[in-house]
Structure formats: C-alpha cells, structure tokens
Amino acid sequence: MLVRLVYASRATEGMDDALVGSILEQSRKNNPEHGITGILCVHTKGKVFLQALEGGRTAVNRLYWNIVADPRHGEVTLLGYDEIEERRFANWRMGKVDLEKVSLSSILRYSDNADLDPYSLSGRGALSLLEELVDSAAIVSRESG
Ligand code: FAD
Description:
Shape: globular
Largest sheet: 5 strands, mixed
Radius of gyration: 14 Å
Number of helices: 4
Order of helices and strands: EHEEHEEHH
Strand content: 25-35%
Number of strands: 5
Bound molecules: flavin-adenine dinucleotide
CATH architecture: 2-Layer Sandwich
Helix content: 25-40%
Strand order of the largest sheet: 4-1-3-2-5
CATH class: Alpha Beta
Distance between the termini: 20 Å
C-alpha cells in the first residue's frame, strides 16, 4: 500500500548549503533502496523545511521516525498523511525547491500573506503548493530515480 506523508520542521542551527546538501545526499543514497520518492522544500530565511515523502507505508513510517529523531531540526509537525493510488513525485528520489525563489502569486494562492509559513498550511494546501511547484518546474535541484 502506498502512502504520502507531508510535514514541516525548523532547522535547529542556521540553514546553509552544507546542511541541505548533506540531507539531499543521504536521501538520494537511501530512498531508492526503500522505494521512497519525494520533494524537499527549504526556506532559508525562516529555517523551515517542507517535505513530502511517498512510498510503502512501512518504509515511509520508518523514515519519518528517523527524520523526527534527527537533531538537525525540530518542531517537526505532521501536516498530512494519506493512502494514495499513485505517486505524485515518482520521478524524484528527492527534489529540492527553494521557497524563497517561488513566485509571489504562487505563495499568495496558499498563504494569507507574502511570507509563506508552512506551519500555517493545511495538509491539502501544502500538497497543492508542492504539486504546483512540480508543475511549474520550480525544482532547482533534481535527480531522477
Ligand atoms: P544510518 O543510521 O546509517 O541508516 C539508517 C538505517 O536505516 C540504514 O540501515 C538504512 O538502510 C535504514 N533505512 C533508512 N531509511 C529506511 C526506510 N525508509 N525503511 C527502512 N529502513 C531504512 N534521510 C533519508 O534517508 N531520506 C530522506 O528523504 C530524508 N529527509 C530528511 C529531511 C530533513 C529535513 C532532515 C533533517 C533529514 C532527512 N533525512 C532523510 C535524514 C534522516 O533524518 C536520517 O539522518 C537518515 O535517514 C539516516 O540515514 P543514514 O544512512 O545516514 O544513517
């Protein structure tokens, strides 16, 4: 059975290229082996992560517990968890989007002001934003699985 999990979290220290790079490297190493695909959005100024994970229920649950225990971030908040018929991010072992590069109109569609706060999004709103980012090719770093 396939599931999709969406969460937001905040980096405990500053968020820089080294931190994001090491997370992407781990993701791209581990995720194919466990059948996991997804997308990682980063908002450097707000030190916020927004991530969608898709895959088998056991693999996604296991990874989520690893991620929750990771000391590089905190305030991990589950925004959505659904059983799905098919993957939406099937082509990404783990894509990366910089939320600061997303157009204002995209942000305003899902946020009540121009400063996107992923914690204020509903699960459905977070997924819609992620889908729009994929459709508008806003992925700044991708690696096909
Ligand atoms: P190890 O301790 O060497 O590996 C852990 C063990 O668990 C290995 O045997 C590995 O094969 C196994 N394992 C890993 N994933 C699964 C799984 N899904 N099901 C069953 N067994 C598994 N890490 C990722 O791998 N993918 C991500 O998408 C990801 N996203 C992250 C996003 C954020 C914002 C942050 C802060 C961290 C993220 N991480 C992700 C890192 C994660 O928190 C752990 O640090 C990482 O998974 C540990 O992997 P490792 O190989 O370095 O550790």
